[in-house]
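Researcher: Here's my situation. A collaborator sent me these components and asked whether they could plausibly form a single complex. I don't have experimental data yet, so a predicted model of the whole assembly would be a useful starting point for our discussion.
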Amino acid sequence: MLQLKNIKKTYNGKAVLNGIDLDIDTGEIVSILGPSGSGKTTLLNVILGLTDLDEGQIIFNGEDLSRTPMKQRGFNIVFQDYALFPNLNAYENIIYGLKNKPGVSTKREVRELIALLGLGNHLGKTVDQLSGGQKQRVALARTLVMKPRVLLLDEPLSALDGVIKESIKERIKTIASDYNLTTIIVTHDPEEALTLSDRVLILNEGGISQYSTPREIIHNPHNGFVRQFILNQLEIKRNNIFSLFEGAYA
Ligand SMILES: Nc1ncnc2c1ncn2[C@@H]1O[C@H](COP(=O)(O)OP(=O)(O)OP(=O)(O)O)[C@@H](O)[C@H]1O
């Protein structure tokens, strides 16, 4: 279990995270959802160890990691822009991290992961020959071969379109369940958060507005912000689609 206790972070005198308390069960998918500037990326970076926290604790399976350097936490992130090495092909990108830590994944495990992510036919392609969805899967594979203890994903679906988005979503769910891997995802899209996650953390101005299952958020929004920001966005999306066809059957 990953526990965040009273996490605080201030930039230039402004509280960006103002006391976040959170428990995430092992194998759970949690989305961090909120408007621009609400502190999503800062929270992700604090968990990763890229950003130091000012106050509070990060406890993983009972071990206090609050001051543990990023590399020793054993958490790993897929960045929004994938950050693949352009001079390497897909396969070389996937196994890159194993050069320094051989044996973390066996050849068989790497093969299984490549099959799971449907990358078998794309291994020889250079990065610029890969589509957005393929790049995302290579980035996921490259991270997963290192067997992170927690997987962090920064806006993993934002650059992808409809069908590809659904396919990546399903793969993320499969990975979290097959590997019992705690997965934390930053998104600004309520639909993504609600359809992908076991629980959704809704941030507003550095504080928790609601932390619940998608079902609970839909049926029992805890406050006006959740209703306004999250549910209204979904309603607007829905109405936009339905208004397109209004009168079509008249
Ligand atoms: N390194 C930094 N130095 C100063 N201020 C920062 C720094 N990083 C983030 N901030 C500020 O902290 C606040 C939260 O930023 P953060 O990037 O966490 O928000 P976010 O919810 O991820 O936003 P977005 O959806 O736009 O990416 C913003 O006001 C931002 O300007």
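Model: Some features of this prediction you could bring to your collaborator: The chain has one domain: 2-219. The longest strand covers residues 14-24.
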